[in-house]
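Milestone 3.1: sequence recovery, worked example.
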């Protein structure tokens, strides 16, 4: 059943989080064993499906090159061949090399050193790199570095637009801030819970859930965990229900929040 548009977007977004996490459980993002694997995945996933990224990552893993040292040492033509399944492979290979050059130059090749920087400083630095827009920068910060930033993607925009919360063309930063402010009280509430209640939800099997991985189960603050989950849940809505054409509203867990036409 549809209803009138919500006058409190922050409350609406918290309601989405509750409805989706109850329906689908933990989404276990990002499916990776190391921080560097998340970073490579964040580059490779641009303009392609995750299944293609998995093939490229598998090639790198098989060649024992899925590491800072590996990407530093491999020759560009070979790197291009290995990541070819992810598309735009020449451009992506060059950008991966540039990321490692940046890491070497600023942080002596150390990811822990890079991720120990203040969030806004590092965000600015990442945004200054060729091929890193806000979505990729925030994916790296959140999923590789456990920094408290929310990742806004096309699915987020589409859902907000269709639910009358914000037009799809709304500025990235405005949407990011809206989600961050909206979700903060959930994290504050969770921090008060006793440890046994705070245990992660059962690993989900629906939405855009992945099997638990070293990165998905890494220690992180409640705030980072909430941002982590919410982006994964939104991808689940976008992939399974809120498609560009012909959305399946009747089966979607957010159907009851859909405003009346
Ligand atoms: S598919 Fe779900 S999220 Fe998309 S418009 Fe319909 S109810 Fe909303």
């Amino acid at each position: 059943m549809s209803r009138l548009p919500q006058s409190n977007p922050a409350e609406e977004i918290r309601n989405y989080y509750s409805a989706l996490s109850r329906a689908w459980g933990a989404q276990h993002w990002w499916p990776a064993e190391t921080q560097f694997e998340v970073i490579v995945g964040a580059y490779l996933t641009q303009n392609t499906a995750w299944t293609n990224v998995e093939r490229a990552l598998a090639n790198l893993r098989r060649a024992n090159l899925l590491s800072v040292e590996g990407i530093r040492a491999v020759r560009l033509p070979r790197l291009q061949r290995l990541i070819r399944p992810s598309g735009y492979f020449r451009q992506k290979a060059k950008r991966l090399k540039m990321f490692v050059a940046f890491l070497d130059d600023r942080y002596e090749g150390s990811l822990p050193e890079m991720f120990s920087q203040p969030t806004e400083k590092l965000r600015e630095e990442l945004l200054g790199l060729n091929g890193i827009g806000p979505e990729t920068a925030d994916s790296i910060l959140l999923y590789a570095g456990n920094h408290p930033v929310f990742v806004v993607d096309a699915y987020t925009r589409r859902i907000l637009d269709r639910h009358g919360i914000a037009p799809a063309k709304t500025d990235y930063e405005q949407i990011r801030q809206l989600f961050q402010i909206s979700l903060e009280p959930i994290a504050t509430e969770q921090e008060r819970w006793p440890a046994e209640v705070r245990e992660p939800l059962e690993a989900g099997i629906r939405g855009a859930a992945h099997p638990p991985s070293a990165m998905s189960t890494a220690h992180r603050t409640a705030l980072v965990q909430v941002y982590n989950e919410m982006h994964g849940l939104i991808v689940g809505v976008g992939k399974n229900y809120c498609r560009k054409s012909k959305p399946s509203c009747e089966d979607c867990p957010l159907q009851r929040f859909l405003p009346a036409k």
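The pocket of iron/sulfur cluster is lined by residues 159, 162-163, 237, 241-242, 247-249, 252, 254-255, 258 (CB under 6 Å). DSSP finds 13 helices and no strands in the chain.
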